[in-house]
Amino acid sequence: MPFEGQSWAWDRSDKRIIYGIIRRTGEVVVARIPELPKTLLAR
Length: 43
Description:
The chain is mostly beta strands. It has one domain (1-34). 9% of the residues lie in helices and 35% in strands. The protein contains 1 helix and 3 strands.
């Protein structure tokens, strides 16, 4: 994840978006979680 710490939350309207906070700078970071390749899901 592009942020550290304990403060994070999933976006309730998009299951592949997560929000985090960089405490030292006060920045809110938005990250998109990539989908897993189908070959990994088939295992």
